[in-house]
Amino acid sequence: MQVNLVPPRAVRPVRTFFAIMQLGTAVLFASEHAKAQQSASVAISIKDHRFQPSQISAPASRPISIKVKNLDTSPMEFESVSLRVEKVIAPGSEGVVNVRALAPGRYEFFDDFHQEARGFLMVE
Ligand SMILES: [Cu+2]
């Protein structure tokens, strides 16, 4: 003999409630995950072999997309040892440097063709 402590009619709404709660939690996790994967964009220019601005900032734990505009009449190479990137950008054009999600910190970059040009990416 089966003994139901909760009358059968009450069981269904309770189960539906939990199913909706679980779905809500799943959706919430999915959107948090999507946000974490969404890249942040920052832009920088180089003119007269100087980065403008010389310091850019981006959020931690998200991939970063750095748009670099070369306003000079000679090629430049955006390079960073700590970010492990290097990209040659032709004069008068722009390039996008994609960086992995980073821990908070200060990451230096430079123009490998004119090493006096230096800047920092502040990740916070
Ligand atoms: Cu290089």
Order of helices and strands: HEEEEEEEEE
Shape: rod-shaped
Q: What strand order characterises the main sheet?
A: 3-9-8-5-6
Percent helix range: 10-25%
* Unreliable segments of 5+ consecutive residues: none
Please state roughly what percent of the residues sit in beta strands, choosing from under 5%, 5-15%, 15-25%, 25-35%, 35-45% or over 45%. Answer: 35-45%
Using the CA coordinates, give the radius of gyration.
25 Å
Mean pLDDT: 88
Number of strands: 9
Bound molecule types: copper (II) ion
**How many helical elements?**
1
- Main beta-sheet annotation: 5 strands, mixed
From the helix content, strand content and strand pairing, which structural class follows? alpha+beta
Quaternary state of this entry equals single chain
Query: How far apart are the termini?
Result: 63 Å
